[in-house]
Amino acid sequence: MATRIITSRHVFDGLEDRTRPAAVVVDGDRIVAVVDPDHAHLYRDASTEVEDWGDAFVCAGFHDAHQHVFHSALFPSALAMEYCGTSEADCAARMYDFAKDRPWGTWALSHGWRDMLWDPPIAPTRLSLDAYFPTTPAAMYSGDSHTLWLNTCAMRELGIDEDTELPAGGSFDRDGDGRLTGVFREGAGMYYVARVLESLPREQLRQVFRDWLHELNRRGVTSVCDMGLSAIPGCDAVLDDVWSDLDAAGELTVRGHLFPTLPLDGDLSRIERLQSELTGPMLRAPGVKQFFDGVSSAHTAWLLEPYANPRFPGDCGHPAIPAEQMRSIVLGAAEAGIAVRIHTIGDAAVHEGVSIFEEAKERFGAPAQGRNCLEHIESLERADVARMRDAAVVASVQPQHVVIDVTQPARDLGEGRASFMWPFRTYLDSGVPMAFGTDAPCVPCDPAAIVHDAVTRRDASGDPAGGWLPEQRVSAAEAVRALTLGGAVAVGRERELGTLEPGMLADLVVIDRNPLSENPDALHGAHVLATYVGGRKVFDGV
Fold first, then answer.
1. Alpha-helical regions (H) of 160-201
2. Backbone angles phi, psi at 301, to 5 degrees
3. How far is residue 109's CA from residue 141's CA, in Å, rounded to a whole number?
4. How many CB atoms lie within 10 A of CB 137?
């Protein structure tokens, strides 16, 4: 007989674009039946726990298909501040208020600033932080996690001076006199933020992880893809030792899928070790991650044609690594049966990424565990959508990115390229599977916002009216499916995660409103009532 029966008048099994009254019957950690509520009594005995959620919405647990777990856990914790700010001065002052009572000499840390949203929208310098922190190191990571802003004390602590060698794939901002300003971009920012964070005690990190996993449960998240944050060896922030410690202690309440950095020398020893060690239901390492470019707002995304507002003649951005080197390391992984997920934002990066995956599929077939994915895919040529389908590539995309600043694409890319971006509707109509995620901490991990933004292509305030590129909207059922089954497809676990069917792992979320029938704007007030992982209730919001 069943150990638990969960009933509701609005169960979304993920197979049809509608809800229905149903009872989800769970035995141990698996679903054994999904039946009409009138038949649920056939599966119960005196020990069966029955929960009737009435008119609440029940679906498979949410799967954040692209998250940087360590940074997401750290920056809303007691160890660091999360803040965007309205200006350089505002950010520096807020950092002082956050850190002023901390022990002398302790790093002052924050994440979230975006100079393109400031007034005026100009890059900061170390001088504003020096005014508040003359003897304490201060490190402020940008909201898109591609730029690091340090004060002079932090630079000294990290051994950075005017003659420091530039880390691979990065750049240093300099003033009119050629002196370092304290802003470090792309590979340089990622390298030095890793240096800052590696000094944190491991037990503190384990507690930060525990707290974050429970917070994810509160938001209905039952699975997450922990994505490498840097192309530099040792700096990817995928803390497999912390994950493994928590798994061994039975403390994981979210299924972790690790995607560490694919080394530029093609060394597969780390991922092969992880794949051999992490074989349980809670922790896997389906593949690896690598970066092909940066972000368009910083002109580091790699484009086929120059930016509409070039910073120098022929400004097309640039690849993070040469295309032939990317091809070599990805094909090496493919030959070993290892899935690769490539950060591709500009249309040139997307085009070359698809070409590499085409060759990988033709020569080596499908990966052994996960699926090959392109991550973010903001700007692309229309013809590359069909090529993605034929190469069996998953579009791992983040709907919240669409509405961060809808004026930015036209400003940087021009109206022509900005007319075809984040093309969710086109993906589905063309047969390209989508996996929805957040890219947290770049944006909050908010499943309700993911669905809202994909369905409306408007921000929480309703802008722009009618939605940005509204022809690319998807239905609520399609959005929920991309947020549940989509992640399972990306990690190669669609036969046990992502839908409510017999034989699937019993990961479920219960929320207080039905996204398939509610006004999409109402989703911003949605509340998770319960979250289950493997049939065990890991969050009770009642």
1. 187-197
2. -70, 145
3. 8
4. 21
Q: Which amino acid is at 255?
A: R
**In the structure encoding, which two tokens stand for residue 173, read together?**
């901002």
CA distance 335 to 346: 27
Beta strand 255-259 pairing with 283-284: parallel
Full 3-state SS string of 263-276: CCCCCCHHHHHHHH
Residue 472, SS3? helix
Cα 330 from Cα 6, distance rounded (Å):
44
Which of 377, 380, 340 minimizes the C-alpha distance to 357? 340
Quickly tell me which residue has 């690091």 as its tokens: 148
Q: Is the dihedral of CA 458, 464, 469, 473 positive or negative?
A: positive
Name the burial class of residue 412, with classes exposed (0-12), middle (13-18) and buried (19+) by CB atoms within 10 angstroms of its CB.
Answer: buried
pLDDT tens figures, 12-59:
999 999 999 999 999 999 999 999 999 999 999 999 999 999 999 999
**Contact yes or no for 12/518 (Cβ under 8 A):** no
What is the distance between the alpha carbons of residues 93 and 199, in angstroms, rounded to a whole number?
A: 25
Indicate the DSSP class of residue 279: B
* Burial tier of 136 (Cβ tally within 10 Å: 0-12, 13-18, 19+): buried
- The secondary structure of residue 453, as a DSSP letter, is H
Query: HEC profile for 354-371?
Result: HHHHHHHHHHHCCCCCCC
The residues, ordered by sequence, that sit 6+ positions from 15 with a Cβ below 8 Å of its Cβ are 499, 501
Amino acid at 276: S
User: 148-196 pLDDT, tens per residue?
Assistant: 999 999 999 999 999 999 887 789 999 999 999 999 998 888 888 888 8
pTM: 0.89
DSSP strands (E only) in 175-300: 180-186, 221-227, 255-259, 283-284, 287-291
Angle at 233 between CA 377 and CA 335, to 5 degrees: 65
β 434-436/508-511 pair status:
unpaired
How far out from the chain centre does Cα 503 lie?
A: 28
61, 493 contact by CB (below 8 A): no
Cα dihedral 347/349/351/352 (nearest 10): 160
